[in-house]
Amino acid sequence: xxxVSFWCLLIYMSILLHWRNIADGAKHFSQSGCQLVSKAANxxxxxxxxxxxxxxxxxxxxxxxxxxxxxxxxxTLQRYHNLNNLSLRSNSLCHIDLNAFRHTxxxxxxxxxxNTIFSKYTLVSSGLSSAxxxxxxxLSRNALNEDMVITLLSNLTSLxxxxxxxxxxxxxxxxxxxxxxxxxxxxxxxxxIYEIGIETFDSLVNLKTLNLAFNLLPCIVDFSLMQxxxxxxxxxxxxxxxxxxVDVDFQLQKxxxxxxxxxxxxxxPKSHHLHTLLLSDNKMRFYSKHFDEYSSSADFLIFKNNxxxxxxxxxxxxxxxxFSALSVVDFSRNQFDYLPDNFLAAMSSMSYLxxxxxxLETFDLSSKQITSNLHxxxxxxNRLSRLSLEESSSSLQQLSYFNLSQNELQDLPxxxxxxxxxxxxxxxxxNxxxxxxxxxxxxxYPNCVDLRNIPSLQHLRLSGxxxxxxxxxxxxxxxxTYLDVSDNQLMSLDFLQDTVKMLKSLSLRNSLHFVSNIDxxxxxxxxxxxxxxxxxxxxxxxxxDLTLQFLDVHKNKLTSIPVSxxxxxxxxxxxxxxxxxxxxxxxxxxxxxxLTTSKSINIPDLKQITCNFTNNYMFVQDLPESVIHSxxxxxxxTLLSLVLxxxxxLTLLVAFILLFLLFKKPLLKMFKKHFRTxxxx
Length: 681
What we know:
By secondary structure, this protein is an alpha/beta fold. Helix content is 14%, strand content 18%.
């Protein structure tokens, strides 16, 4: 019976171990140190000089990144017939034998990133030709030039994805990618490409994604990739972008020409499917208001097939392209001082628009100019002094984010934000505006901005608006959870009474100089507070009972923080705090020890915290031993005072006794002589 029980126990443990291995993905290690999980082998960072031969023969994925493999011989991969993915990133690979991939007919993905293929690229090309099923190839960071690329790709007709980033390619022509008819995605980032031949991409009939970012391209003329869906030309030197003038439906969906030198709005295909257009950080502007529409044109001489033709383009005429499908548009950081009539209105599907960091002086928010689908609008850092809006306009019903900061706005339509029923995030920082309140005289302040009774408003930024706030009720009817009123003049915190129970984040930086009594006890929902740069001399005690996660008190005049226990609510909840730039007393740093010993509290400016000792400021982290010793004596308390005064008292007592004994007899005689009387007998 015992034997039966023993065998049952063994069977049970075997089954349990089997299921545990399945649950853990059958994770174990080979003799060479590779981690085996299911049908994948991870051999990274093992200082290997060759492909391990002790792995299961049925593995499908082999990762040998960050080792010292220099070559792949004919028999290196012979035992791995089912190999589908091979990664040899960051090795010293420079040689691949002719039949290295002969036994891996299922290999589809190969990464040779960051190797030394350039040194023996002809041998590598011969080896790659045996990978007949290869679909995904990464040759980035191999110091390859255009001639090497042509040789390496000459027989890889099955490729669908090709990565050539971070090489030294300077020029592309019709021979570079010849024969790669199946290629769908091509990345050429971080090269030195300054010229692209006319027929370079003609053979890539299935190409959908092309990435040419971070190169030296000066212009794109006669763009004709009808089948392309995504094109990235960011971070080049492009001044002109012209597409071919043909009545063909281009499949382009996303175009990125940001961070270039575009002088004019790109001449896009007449028919396309663009939903994302990124043109930020250029030098674009429109000119029709400054010149006659037909007074200035440019003639472009285009060479093709040993011939040439001249194309004349009117540089500031109407934009003829179809923008109806555009959804995401970024025109930020350009030189637009105005936009042509109906320019934005043509973007009927637009939901995201950035026009920040331009030179706009006015902007029309009416339904004739702005689509009703707009959710995000950024007009910050312009020269806006006026916004136009139709009365009872319903064009911005869907707008949820609106940024008007860093402009010259003074007079705004009073109820401008009341038509935006979905507005939740509003930034009016650094404008000279006034806010309407229950006590505001609309006759004296006809253009005050009314933020009351906007129930959707949750995030509001009003920093640097020159506001003087005290007892006004300016946020009644809102659901504010985030509020920034930094760099204003606050007389009290009474204006926050309508939001005191809802606010989670509050910034009062450089705005409390006129507030004598600061009480945060009612802000029970507050998790983030910024009261920096306010010259506060005492830490508000009401903060100790709040459960803040973020607290910024840097650049004040605090001498100490009233931390009495690590179990106080503030200390237990705090995650990040800024404390530098205060006048902390070097002999009162018990709070510092409590905060720094707490593993949950992060103090990013810890090394900049200083304290004052006899009018000398020192870094708290590097306090000299002499200062610490002096502070110990100074902070010794009553017992230390008694100990220090005892020797003095004893010395005085001894001196008094000695004087008394010295003058004892003369004093007695003088006393008797003066008070001598007859004695009774």
